[in-house]
Amino acid sequence: MFELEIELWDSLTKLEPRRRAGALALRLKGKPQRIALKAMKTHRQAMLQPDGLKLLMATIKSGYVAENMTEQFQIALNLWKMLRGGGKTIPDHIMDWESLKDEATANEFTASPKLEGAMLLHSANLTDDHKLLVMTALQGQTVDDVKAALLKVFPRKASRKHLLTTGPDAEGKGKGKQQKGKGKGKGSHAYEAYGQEDYDASAPPVPEEGEVWETKAQQQQQEEEHPYEEWEDEEGVCWFVNKKGNWKKKGKGKGKG
What we know:
Layout: H1 3-12, H2 17-27, H3 30-42, H4 44-47, H5 52-81, H6 90-106, H7 113-123, H8 128-137, H9 143-153, H10 160-164, H11 216-225, E1 230-232, E2 237-241, E3 247-252
Antiparallel strand pairs: 1-2, 2-3
Helix pairs in contact: 2-3, 2-5, 3-5, 5-6, 7-9, 8-9
């Protein structure tokens, strides 16, 4: 029951003024009723006075605001404490975070787009090097800008080649090379153009001799996703990564493609 409706009810009811606060407490529902019944118990004598209804309305209003602020703080804290972990990908984490934010919005939580962006970036739980890559790719400060930057650095179907060329000046370099044939073995590196459904994100691209990692963060990520240090392409050429992070040809071997 809203404040205006309560005032209207007060002007029309034939109940004695001292009984109106109690009658209102019984008519309310949810959080307002909980606050009203607590006030009736704590301040019983004052509520039974002719002006008890006005006192009860003021108590409900102040109590509702206080409880609402507490709930909003807890919702914001839950969003802030939601950290990516357990090997979850950035795209999957963004989906989970947005789902939790939608629940918070349904519970009347509001935040500026910039604050939401900061919360999303924090929740991604990135290393310092990865966070620097995302910050460099940012085109703005809103939550949509942060989401776009995260997906640019950590796309859903990322190949090693894409991550090697992902950076502030690497627009369009992350497209996979079209290769002929698809193998099943360790040396298989055939994959379709980046973004297609049959793209093989688990296979490394064909490197160019002397190719280097752009940053240590990218090198670390690639090595975590593809732990092997060498592989053989379908033509029987063995490749390996030296201590400097450069791709080198090792020599001819038995084809696995």
